[in-house]
Specification:
elongated; 4 helices; LprI-like_N; about 0% strand; signal; about 130 residues; Substrate Binding Domain Of Dnak, Chain:A, Domain 2; mainly alpha
Length: about 130
């Protein structure tokens, strides 16, 4: 019986240690989004630097990124079309989680310009083409 009591005490203590308020979860999700956005911007800046000689690519990449931001914002509006208060106190967390997901997807899409494609891929386009044209 004593060991059961100790076990229950440990379980309860562990659960309390991991418990967070909604405000804390909202804040954590917001920070995760900020971190993801920072990583995206780092990758973007590395591409700008690496491909600086390819002016046409840089111009098109900047336009694509500007349009992607519009797309991202429209996606969030489509996901949560009602008034913010409709979704309750979890909304900041949910929105931040969705923004994080979209940002990770964009980061991976851009990362290919840094990492390249497998040798022999004939459809690589501007990937790896760092020279002016």
């Amino acid at each position: 019986m004593k060991s059961l009591f100790i076990f229950l005490l440990l379980i309860t203590g562990s659960a309390a240690a991991f418990a967070q308020s909604q405000g804390e979860m909202n804040k954590q999700a917001g920070q995760e989004y900020k971190d993801a956005d920072k990583k995206l911007n780092e990758i973007y800046q590395l591409i700008i630097k690496d491909y600086a000689a390819n002016k046409a690519f840089i111009q098109n990449l900047k336009e694509a990124q500007r349009i992607w931001i519009q797309f991202r914002d429209a996606q969030v509006k489509a996901m949560y079309p009602a008034a913010t208060k409709t979704y309750g106190s979890v909304f900041p967390m949910c929105k931040a989680n969705y923004l994080t997901e979209l940002t990770h997807q964009r980061t991976e899409a851009l990362r290919v310009w840094l990492n390249g494609l497998p040798q022999g891929d004939v459809c690589s386009g501007s990937i790896g083409d760092k020279q002016a044209h």
